Amino acid sequence: MSSSSSSSSSPPSSIPSLPSKDEVKEEVVAATKSTVSSFRSLAAGGVGGVCAVIVGHPFDLVKVRLQTAEKGVYSSALDVVRKTVAREGLARGLYAGVSAPLVGVTP
Questions:
Q1: Can you spell out the DSSP letters for 27-80?
Q2: SS3 label, residue 11
Q3: Cβ-contact 57, 99 below 8 angstroms
């Protein structure tokens, strides 16, 4: 009888025990750190993408204008920049159409 009374006092092994308050607190802190880290990575990637578009877009615009212009319109890449800035202004000329690529890289 003593063997049956000792087995009835211990919980069955198939029922998991509940975590302690400290264990729950540690899990919450770890999850919070992971979430903050993920958000920081997302923000850093978004800022990096925006910077890449802002720096690279004028070069792409000059390339496209050189490729699509009739022969003899532009003599060089610098000629494209000079004529574009003179005709359309600095911001409007070199950053025409930048909104679509910005939307594409913004998280």
A1: HHHHHHHHHHHHHHHHHHHHHHHHHHHHHHHHHHHHHHHHHHSPTTS-SSHHHH
A2: coil
A3: no
Contact 41, 107 (CB under 8 A): no
pTM above 0.85, yes or no: no
Six token digits for residue 99? 């909104």
Which two structure tokens, joined as six digits, stand for 98?
């930048």
Closest among 26, 49, 27 to 102, alpha carbons compared: 49
Yes or no: say if 98 and 57 are a contact pair by the CB < 8 Å rule.
yes
Banded model confidence at residue 12, pLDDT cuts 50, 70, 90: low
Closest CA to 96 of 63, 66, 58, 65: 58
